[in-house]
Amino acid sequence: MSSETVNIPFVRLAKRESMDPRKVWAIRIGSIVIAILLGMLPMFITGNNPFKAYQIIISGALGKPIYIKQTIKIAIPLLGCALAIAPCFKMRFWNIGAEGQITAGAIAASYFALNWYDKVPSFVLLAIMFIAATIAGGIWGLIPAFFKAKWNTNETLFTLMMNYIIIGIVSWLQGGPWEGRKGSQIIPMFNDSARLPVVFGIHCGWIIVLVLVILMHIYMNYTKHGYEIAVIGDSENTARYAGMNVGRIMMRTMFLSGGICGIIGFIVVTGANHTLYNGVANGVGFTSITVAWLSQLNAFAMILISIMLAILTKGSNTLQTKLKVPASISDIVIGILLFCMLSCEFFINYKLIFRPRKTEIKEASV
Amino acid sequence: MNSNIAIEMRGITKRFGKVVANDSIDLIIKKGEILSLLGENGSGKTTLMNMLAGIYQPDEGQIFAEGEPLTIRSPKDAYECGIGMIHQHYKLVDVFTAAQNIVLGLKDEKLDLKTINSKVKEICDRYSFIIDPSMKIYDMSVSQKQTVEIVKVLYRGADILILDEPTAVLTPQETEKLFTVLRNMRADGKAIVIITHKLNEVMAISDEVAVLRKGKYIGTVKTCETSPQALTDMMVGHAVTLNIDRPKYDSQFPRLKVEGLTCVDDEGITKLDGVTFTAKGGEILGVAGIAGSGQKELLESITGLYPIKQGTVDFVTDEGKEKNLVGLTPMQIRKTGVGMAFVPEDRLGMGLVGSMGMTGNMMLRSWKKGKGVFLNRKSPEELAKKVWDELEVVTPSTSFPVRRLSGGNVQKVLVGREIASLPKILMTAYPVRGLDINTSYAIYNLLTEQKMNGVSVIFVGEDLDVLLELCDRILVLCGGKVSGIVDARTATKEEIGFMMTTVGGKEAADVQ
Ligand SMILES: Nc1ncnc2c1ncn2[C@@H]1O[C@H](COP(=O)(O)OP(=O)(O)OP(=O)(O)O)[C@@H](O)[C@H]1O
Ligand SMILES: [Mg+2]
Predict the structure, then answer these.
(1) How far does the CA of residue B347 sit from the closest CA of chain A (Å)?
(2) Does B397 contact ligand 1 (Cβ within 6 A)?
(3) Which stretch of A107-111, A159-163, B93-97, B225-229 has the lowest confidence by average pLDDT?
(4) B510, B478 Cβ separation under 8 angstroms
(5) B427 vs A2, which has greater pLDDT?
(6) Tens digit of pLDDT for each residue in B84-137?
(7) Which of B326, B174, B352 is nearest to B256 (CA)?
(8) Exposed/middle/buried for B289, CB within 10 Å: 0-12, 13-18, 19+?
(9) Domains detected in chain B
(10) What Cα–Cα distance (Å) separates residue A170 from each residue in A78, A209, A238, A345, A358?
(11) Do A19 and A348 contact (CB within 8 A), yes or no?
């Protein structure tokens, strides 16, 4: 008996059945508090005052109107891209190729920005760029879905690989056909007519993504398409039984997802960068997965989460310049925060069972 | 007397949110006896046993073993107390062999195959199991998998065995084998609890019967002093009549003509071989056969879910015109106005969306209806309420995920939806599997009612007694071929049993 009691692990996991929503939120808030406390550690170690550091992060992100504008500029593509991948994830189609789909949209938009800026009025040009970006991103998303529907290829690998192809294409454009000054490896800046108008001091991309939030919420919850996506995510067999054409729905959803990513690409090149380079997506395609997951695919929650991540990103940039801490330190702080928030979902779904005290073991083994 | 008690549960209460699944239940499990746990769907049987198996902890009450209080916090604790539970859904690793699965998770075991094999063999011999320790799980039939689960539990030294609806997926022959094993274990002094909805099994195997009703403990009776009728009354709480009415529908007419239907699976194995029959409006056509004789493929190919290699399937309209269904998708079939309803065997994996509530599941039939891009939620919601009401589904609301309903209630949602579509053909695969006796009869009555409305009902079943009592004709499948079609009013169980194993049945045997 005694040898067996030793074998009881100190702690083990069990899946939770369900949880009081109030408790769930308590855990979420608690995890953020823990994250903030843990985040103090690296700053402490590097000899900085953690409270001051947090203050810099906050004031660096929200302290002045211009900072707020910059923070919002960071949040726009994150939010838009999280909206784009939400339907795929709901369908359990793991699209991690948003990065490439953004880039594809950016290329298509840039083509018209560079070649048609003097041919049509600004408004028409932007409309053409918008449509071209949507279609290009959509096609880039459609390709892996087509292969999955026809030959059941693995979408995770496929979408990931598609990222590298399109980024390679931009590098080639940069150094080749679209190069500005010979040898510069840089594509020229867009003409003014190919830049997004500014509303309240920020390019109007924020209006586009807010409209997308509402549209996506309606699409996922009130339309036939949204229902099809939810059924497929639960069981493909049930979807087939209900008469759904699973392959076609997958392709359609990926076209939509890629198309929205393409729009984000359009916003980034016309609103923020005013040019195209191979880092145009800047990791947004991956970070937005975190946004989508943390907000549990809820479109409105994505607004909050993307702004929070933007505050962290912008604030830690300031931290670097003000306290002269290396970039890696602020990356570590962001990493800790994300880790805590993602792992709190784990504690919501699972519970820990600790080894019972000695007396209880005795009872249990009679 | 006291030393005879293996486990005693006192005042056990378990709540899930607002639902009281178990309401201060007292239960005594005795060594060397087989106890049947009986109750309608959702009466809390599985929940109560899960507390012994360490899956849930009671909110109130105490479990005792040999008079000592016992705390069971996890399945592992349960093993250490000698309690082993065989769940309805087997938890085996498909790519492992039987022996690997049996020792899986055991730490202090010297994992050499020889000792394991000999220990497994010893257990098998003692209780007359048959099992090949080196066989992979994916090569096994359901009953073999069940055997592995039982051996796994015994290997861990369980003295108290709990089986949750073990016979639901077994053929009558397999059930008989299982019962032999259980009787051997009883003789060996083990305490056994078996949950089953089949009263003939309760009468055949158990020493005592404990009855639950709506989460409450009603009482325990000796099997030899009771009868199926008395048990049903105890379960339901009032007297019920247990017989299937079989009226005849006078103007039967051909509804579905199937000729030479042949289907081949991905690996080139023939699943259906030249199946020919006509299903009539106003009759219940039973389909009998050993599990895996092509029942699933038959229904799925007719509904457009399984590819047809050869043959014709024609739907006969009310005007007598024949419509070909071969090569159409389920949606195309639905669009041509062929009213076909299908209750598949795999309820949550094919017929329903587990994560959605009743409303979302009602929509599965109507989502495409109506113009425009938006879903119509109103009429599915009304339908959900209607089914909830009429079939007495136990659920907190129409948006509660159906995955978390008890087995019987899941089936009610599915059958309710299919019947509400006002079909011309109603196909059901094992519609009463896992349902309590009262609900089963409710389903039989619903099917008969459909028949009397002129619907052509196809009923794939496993219980020959029920098939003989309920159906008008019975089609017997044997290895994908039609072994024969008999009149259910005159056929005998033996006759059908013979046809299930030999194509052509008696005639074929006579010729040989
Ligand atoms: N995890 C859960 N969450 C919420 N409710 C639950 C859960 N498990 C069971 N219930 C509810 O508790 C009640 C008892 O369920 P249980 O599964 O124990 O019934 P049962 O007697 O085994 O029924 P069946 O014969 O259909 O298997 C049901 O009303 C069910 O809906
Ligand atoms: Mg149960």
Answers:
(1) 9
(2) no
(3) B93-97
(4) no
(5) B427
(6) 999 877 778 888 888 888 888 776 656 677 788 888 888 888 888 888 888 888
(7) B326
(8) buried
(9) 5-236 (3.40.50.300), 253-501 (3.40.50.300)
(10) 21, 25, 42, 38, 65
(11) yes
Give residue A15's pLDDT. 63
Instruction: Tell me the H-state helices in A244-298.
Output: 246-267, 284-294
A165-216 pLDDT, tens digit each: 999 999 999 988 898 888 888 999 999 888 988 888 888 999 999 999 999 9
Predicted pLDDT at A355? 59
Number of domains forming the structure of chain A: 1
Q: Give the closest-approach CA distance of B494 to chain A in angstroms.
A: 36
Does residue A51 fall inside a structural domain? no
Q: What is the pLDDT of residue A97?
A: 94
Q: How far apart are CA B197 and CA B191, in angstroms?
A: 20
Q: Which of B333, B319, B342, B293 is nearest to B456 (CA)?
A: B342
Pick B137 or B27 by higher pLDDT: B27
Whether A6 shows a pLDDT value over 90: the answer reads no
Contact predicate A163/A285, CB 8 Å: yes
State what percent of residues in chain A have pLDDT above 70.
90
Q: How far apart are CA B160 and CA A335, in angstroms?
A: 49
Mean pLDDT for chain B overall? 88
What token pair was written down for A348? Answer: 């919501």
Please check whether residue A61 lies inside any domain of the structure.
no
Q: Is A126 a domain residue?
A: yes
pLDDT in tens, A274-298: 999 999 998 999 999 989 988 889 9
Mutate to test the pocket of ligand 1, among B19, B55, B218 (most ligand atoms within 8 A of CB): B19
Long-range contacts of A290-298 (CB under 8 A, 24+ apart): A290/A338, A290/A342, A291/A78, A291/A79, A291/A81, A291/A82, A292/A82, A292/A85, A292/A86, A292/A89, A293/A89, A293/A342, A293/A345, A294/A341, A294/A342, A294/A345, A295/A82, A297/A86, A297/A89, A297/A90, A297/A220
Cβ B120 vs Cβ B155: under 8 Å: yes
Q: What is the pLDDT of residues B10-21, one digit of tens each?
A: 999 998 877 889
Closest ligand 1 atom to B39 CA: 21
CA A35 – CA A37 distance, rounded (Å): 5
How far is residue B49's CA from residue B163's CA, in Å, rounded to a whole number? 9
* pLDDT above 60 for A365: no
Q: How many C-beta atoms surround the C-beta of residue B102 within 10 A? A: 27
When pLDDT is cut at 50, 70 and 90, the band that residue A14 belongs to is: low
Judge contact between B228 and B199, C-beta under 8 A. Answer: yes
Asked if the structure places residue A225 within a domain, the reply is: yes
E strands along chain A, which residues? 11-15, 198-199, 202-203, 350-354
Cβ atoms < 10 Å from Cβ of A326: 11
Angle at B40 between CA B35 and CA B42, to 5 degrees: 105
Is residue B397 a contact partner of residue B355, using CB atoms and an 8 Å limit? no
The two tokens of residue A211 are 């409209």
Q: Which residues of chain B lie closer than 8 angstroms to A11, CB-CB?
A: none
Asked whether B8 and B64 are in contact (CB, 8 A), the reply is yes
Give the C-alpha distances (Å, rounded to integers) separating B482 from A30, B274, B426.
Answer: 65, 8, 20
Residue B381, number of CB atoms within 10 A of its CB: 18
For residue B60, the cross-strand partners are B13
* Alpha-carbon radius of gyration of chain A: 24
Residue span of the structural domain in which A241 resides: 70-306
How many Å lie between the centroid of ligand 2 and the Cα of residue B216?
15
Instruction: Decide: helix, strand or coil at residue B425.
Output: strand
How many other CB atoms sit within 10 Å of the CB of residue A56?
22
What is residue A279's DSSP assignment?
A: T
Residue B370 C-alpha to ligand 2 middle, in angstroms?
A: 38
Ligand 2 mean position, distance from CA A65 (Å):
61
